[in-house]
């Protein structure tokens, strides 16, 4: 493998390495293109805070429905939207993405991963057109709801698609690329808002909104040229299409041994899991065993919830106003800097996520973040209003963002793409993504009540809250998150079956699923996933059903 590919250093049992072809530049680029979808997520959540602060926007959208003239100091010529309208404009997006992500879980199994993302781009573009056309709150809100549904499709299914098509050795790095594009989206939104904010025509808000059309167009069009996930074809029993997809993704001839081996492995694993129906109810079966579906779904949803409880969006959604509250000048500039630190630090994870692993990043990243948060809180409380407290706040906010961007930002997405068995993978990723948006919404909604002057007025003490929730993140990662680096998604299933999260890092795969089915390998035994009972498995093995389709692959 070329040196530039940050591949995993996890040891593999003998004969295991040949399951996947070496990573080619082309295969790598195909996956990176899919990561571009993160731009939609980042830009869409980022542009609204700047637009709300624009004078032309206040003049155009304020006044009709609210008390006019407004006495609020931030009003423009007495024109300002009401608090309820502001909260609706901001939060309706998360509501749309929440439902979009959930629905995408079914859609991705019905029409395919790639097609769902393309459909998400189309829905998103319709929402953008409505927002651009809007001159009043009602149409803007409707447009953001529709666009949110599109972002929900894209954000849930991109992770699924990338995890399924990326070669295992670089899968973490590729999915981290998605987080990188989220951060670029956030930065671009801040820059575009800054550029148009002083215009006194509709271009001030229409330009930032309209630019998003381009991201969806690029992603949607580009995906037409990418293959569908081979695992989706296998789920539908179409092995020839799965072989062709794999051949395009791995840059190997469709009849090469690499493609045959990997296909056989995918099919073998699917066979083992195929008795599970893969409906929504199946996501909650299997009990609390580490390999049970319920345990995995709770893990994925909790991981995304904890990612939000690191407090990161306090900085990205309310940073500017918070910096003003504690008396810092240049609050807007500081926010731009934190957004830039976010972009600059994420690529570190491309390498560390494969070398150090997901679990290590989550544990040490949370320790880094909580340290910064408690320092900010303590100094801010003891020396409130002092220059020292101001500098500490700026410097440690940057360190905090550095820790988030290089660890929890990417790793939370990487892990949810890896922990679900194929029959419930689409729905598991969708539920986890929906959990991200739900907590994103909840935290975004309650935070102003904690820090606003006329409400909780917590000032720097709010970082005691984030420091405490980050401490929970350390405990959560240590006890519950398994190490999935360097394993195929099929081997992850096996690992969850055979070991506990705390020991998962040293687990070494010894037998491929294909070999297991053919009875090769010492101690090879069928795996237990979800609600598949041992009795059912034994029956299927006896009747030879499980080996049947592996033989079919040999004939593809
Ligand atoms: C989180 C977002 C956050 C972003 C910041 C993502 O992983 O899910 O809520 O705004 O990172 O880069």
Automatic annotation (TrEMBL):
<dbReference type="InterPro" id="IPR036259">
    <property type="entry name" value="MFS_trans_sf"/>
</dbReference>
<feature type="transmembrane region" description="Helical">
    <location>
        <begin position="88"/>
        <end position="108"/>
    </location>
</feature>
<feature type="transmembrane region" description="Helical">
    <location>
        <begin position="389"/>
        <end position="416"/>
    </location>
</feature>
<feature type="transmembrane region" description="Helical">
    <location>
        <begin position="331"/>
        <end position="350"/>
    </location>
</feature>
<feature type="compositionally biased region" description="Basic and acidic residues">
    <location>
        <begin position="534"/>
        <end position="556"/>
    </location>
</feature>
<keyword id="KW-0812">Transmembrane</keyword>
<dbReference type="GO" id="GO:0016020">
    <property type="term" value="C:membrane"/>
</dbReference>
<feature type="transmembrane region" description="Helical">
    <location>
        <begin position="204"/>
        <end position="226"/>
    </location>
</feature>
<dbReference type="GO" id="GO:0005351">
    <property type="term" value="F:carbohydrate:proton symporter activity"/>
</dbReference>
<keyword id="KW-0813">Transport</keyword>
<feature type="region of interest" description="Disordered">
    <location>
        <begin position="518"/>
        <end position="556"/>
    </location>
</feature>
<feature type="transmembrane region" description="Helical">
    <location>
        <begin position="28"/>
        <end position="48"/>
    </location>
</feature>
<dbReference type="Pfam" id="PF00083">
    <property type="entry name" value="Sugar_tr"/>
</dbReference>
<dbReference type="InterPro" id="IPR020846">
    <property type="entry name" value="MFS_dom"/>
</dbReference>
<comment type="similarity">
    <text>Belongs to the major facilitator superfamily. Sugar transporter (TC 2.A.1.1) family.</text>
</comment>
<feature type="transmembrane region" description="Helical">
    <location>
        <begin position="139"/>
        <end position="161"/>
    </location>
</feature>
<feature type="transmembrane region" description="Helical">
    <location>
        <begin position="173"/>
        <end position="192"/>
    </location>
</feature>
<feature type="transmembrane region" description="Helical">
    <location>
        <begin position="362"/>
        <end position="383"/>
    </location>
</feature>
<protein>
    <submittedName>
        <fullName>General substrate transporter</fullName>
    </submittedName>
</protein>
<dbReference type="InterPro" id="IPR050360">
    <property type="entry name" value="MFS_Sugar_Transporters"/>
</dbReference>
<dbReference type="InterPro" id="IPR003663">
    <property type="entry name" value="Sugar/inositol_transpt"/>
</dbReference>
<feature type="transmembrane region" description="Helical">
    <location>
        <begin position="115"/>
        <end position="133"/>
    </location>
</feature>
<feature type="transmembrane region" description="Helical">
    <location>
        <begin position="428"/>
        <end position="451"/>
    </location>
</feature>
<dbReference type="InterPro" id="IPR005829">
    <property type="entry name" value="Sugar_transporter_CS"/>
</dbReference>
<dbReference type="InterPro" id="IPR005828">
    <property type="entry name" value="MFS_sugar_transport-like"/>
</dbReference>
<keyword id="KW-0472">Membrane</keyword>
<keyword id="KW-1133">Transmembrane helix</keyword>
<feature type="transmembrane region" description="Helical">
    <location>
        <begin position="463"/>
        <end position="481"/>
    </location>
</feature>
<feature type="domain" description="Major facilitator superfamily (MFS) profile">
    <location>
        <begin position="30"/>
        <end position="485"/>
    </location>
</feature>
């Amino acid at each position: 493998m070329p040196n530039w590919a940050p591949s995993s250093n996890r040891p593999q049992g003998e004969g295991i390495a040949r399951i996947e072809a070496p990573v080619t530049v082309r295969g790598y680029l195909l996956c990176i293109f899919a990561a571009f979808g993160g731009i939609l997520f980042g830009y869409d959540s980022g542009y609204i805070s700047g637009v709300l602060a624009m004078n032309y926007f206040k003049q155009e959208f304020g006044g009709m429905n609210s008390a006019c003239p407004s006495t609020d100091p931030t009003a423009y010529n007495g024109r300002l939207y009401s608090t309820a309208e502001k909260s609706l404009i901001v939060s309706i997006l998360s509501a749309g993405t929440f439902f979009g992500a959930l629905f995408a879980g079914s859609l991705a199994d019905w029409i395919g991963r790639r097609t769902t993302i393309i459909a998400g781009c189309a829905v998103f573009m319709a929402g953008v057109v409505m927002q651009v056309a809007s001159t009043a709150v009602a149409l803007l809100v409707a447009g953001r709801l529709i666009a949110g549904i599109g972002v929900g499709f894209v954000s849930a299914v991109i992770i699924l698609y990338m995890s399924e098509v990326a070669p295992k050795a670089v899968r973490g790095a590729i999915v981290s690329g998605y987080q990188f594009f989220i951060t670029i989206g956030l930065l671009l939104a801040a820059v575009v808002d800054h550029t148009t904010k002083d215009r006194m025509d509709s271009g001030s808000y229409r330009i930032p909104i309209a630019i998003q059309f381009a991201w969806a167009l690029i992603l949607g069009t580009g995906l037409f040229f990418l293959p569908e996930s081979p695992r989706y074809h296998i789920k539908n029993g179409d092995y020839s299409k799965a072989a062709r997809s794999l051949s395009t993704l791995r840059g190997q001839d469709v009849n090469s041994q690499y493609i045959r081996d990997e296909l056989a492995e995918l099919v073998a694993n699917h066979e083992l899991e195929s008795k599970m129906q893969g409906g929504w109810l199946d996501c909650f079966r299997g009990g609390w065993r580490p390999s049970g579906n319920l345990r995995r779904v709770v893990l994925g949803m909790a991981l995304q919830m904890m990612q939000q409880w690191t407090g990161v969006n306090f900085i990205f959604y309310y940073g500017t106003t918070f910096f003003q509250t504690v008396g810092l000048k240049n609050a807007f500039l500081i926010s731009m800097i934190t957004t830039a630190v976010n972009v600059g630090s994420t690529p570190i994870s491309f390498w560390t996520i494969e070398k150090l692993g997901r679990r290590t990043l989550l544990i040490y990243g949370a320790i880094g973040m909580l340290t910064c948060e408690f320092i900010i809180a303590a100094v801010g409380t003891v020396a409130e209003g002092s220059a020292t407290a101001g500098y500490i706040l700026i410097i440690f906010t940057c360190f905090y963002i550095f820790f988030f961007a290089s660890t929890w930002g990417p790793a939370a997405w990487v892990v949810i793409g890896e922990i679900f068995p194929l029959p419930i993978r689409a729905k598991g990723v969708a539920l986890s993504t929906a959990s991200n948006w739900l907590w994103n919404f909840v935290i975004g909604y309650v935070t102003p009540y904690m820090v606003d002057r006329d409400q909780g007025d917590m000032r720097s003490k709010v970082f005691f809250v984030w420091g405490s929730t980050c401490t929970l993140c350390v405990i959560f990662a240590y006890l519950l998150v398994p190490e999935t680096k360097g394993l195929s998604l099929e081997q992850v299933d096996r690992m969850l079956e055979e070991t506990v999260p705390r020991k998962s890092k040293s687990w070494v795969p010894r037998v491929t699923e294909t070999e297991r089915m053919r009875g090769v390998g010492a101690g090879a035994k069928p795996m237990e996933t979800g609600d598949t009972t041992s009795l059912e498995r034994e029956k299927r093995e006896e009747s030879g059903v499980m080996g049947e389709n592996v033989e079919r692959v040999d004939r593809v």
